[in-house]
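Still learning. Show one?

>
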Amino acid sequence: NVDFGYTPEKIILHDISLYAEPGQKIAFVGATGAGKTTITNLINRFYDIQKGKIKYDRININKIKKSDLRSSLGIVLQDTYLFTGTIEDNIKYGKLDATKEEVIAAAKLANADYFINHMPKGYATMLTSDSLSQGQKQLLAIARAAIANPPVLILDEATSSIDTRTEKIVQEGMDKLMKDRTVFVIAHRLSTIKNSDVIMVLDH
């Protein structure tokens, strides 16, 4: 029974109730501005709600330390943020004490290992703002989420700026990442919706 507005005088989610069983894949569909991203932001507790409760394993999320809550949630967004450093450093951002073997395993799961090995220095290649394509950035974001190995995933899986062949590679990486996890996905394509256990249609 959640109410939420970014400002108190303008409530945009009215009495929303939904739940996910462990291991379920929940797809959010609806027009731009319908509230899909807002709901995923509330699961992360980027904002606090005006009314109702959000519970994670029956615990009210405002009773869970934000750092603990967020470390159990993997996020792959439409816009991938990479920082200056090596490819390995960027993947390890999901788990700072990861071994080289874990980095490679995560990259393989994400379908990123092939392109990384074709880079000038492989995993030790330094990244600059324009050294990777949008698709390659997405694959690194998937690897970063995979290495963190979270029980819950939030995906905004838009691949609008990726060519069809790369999209297939990214989608395969996403599918492997989603296996055996609880997933909330903002769906942009029919295949995602068809593969879901639950479809939440948001309107107004």
